[in-house]
Design goal:
- With 133 residues, the chain is mainly α.
- The chain has two domains: 61 residues; 67 residues.
- 46% of the residues lie in helices and 0% in strands.
- The chain is built from four helices and no strands.
- α1 crosses α3.
- The chain is rod-shaped.
- The termini are far apart.
- Bound molecules: flavin-adenine dinucleotide.
- Pfam families: HI0933_like.
Length: 133
Amino acid sequence: MVGLYLVLYIPQKQKVAGSYPPELGIVKRFWKYLLNREGIDEDILWASISSNSLMSVAALLKQCSFIIKGKISLKTMESRIKSRLFFAGEVLNVDGITGGFNFQNAWSGGYIAGTSIGKMAATSASSLEKQAM
Ligand SMILES: Cc1cc2nc3c(=O)[nH]c(=O)nc-3n(C[C@H](O)[C@H](O)[C@H](O)COP(=O)(O)OP(=O)(O)OC[C@H]3O[C@@H](n4cnc5c(N)ncnc54)[C@H](O)[C@@H]3O)c2cc1C
């Protein structure tokens, strides 16, 4: 269906980066990201795009996966560089390809960081108790 939208859309004299089917409901920034990811020149005209490129963009639109990597462990929100240092929310400056979801990032990250700190504190307290005995 997505591939069909692309094929039916093709405005011959426009650049691929500047126009795309409105039915897809995506933002321009994400569209450009898809083109770059597929190695498609932003300045190429729709008339010149190969059917292989069209199919690969359509496939990406249907199933686009992302690799998340960074200096924070997402399981605990602890810094991988400085142990016992945790981060959550706006300070991480999370920048998704489509933007948004900042509240969810702040709430989920805050919950993970808070529970991780709680577990760490409980472990430290029990080992201190054992040492004192
Ligand atoms: C105008 C606007 C609109 C937004 N709309 C959306 C939206 O629609 N959807 C969405 O998902 N996100 C939106 N965001 C982003 C969202 O508000 C933030 O990502 C989120 O609030 C971050 O939460 P936080 O707890 O990390 O930081 P904040 O909410 O900024 O909380 C930080 C708190 O720390 C306090 N503080 C700062 N320095 C100190 C200090 N030295 N000592 C003690 N306290 C301190 C501040 O007073 C503040 O209360 C919007 C942001 C803005 C500015």
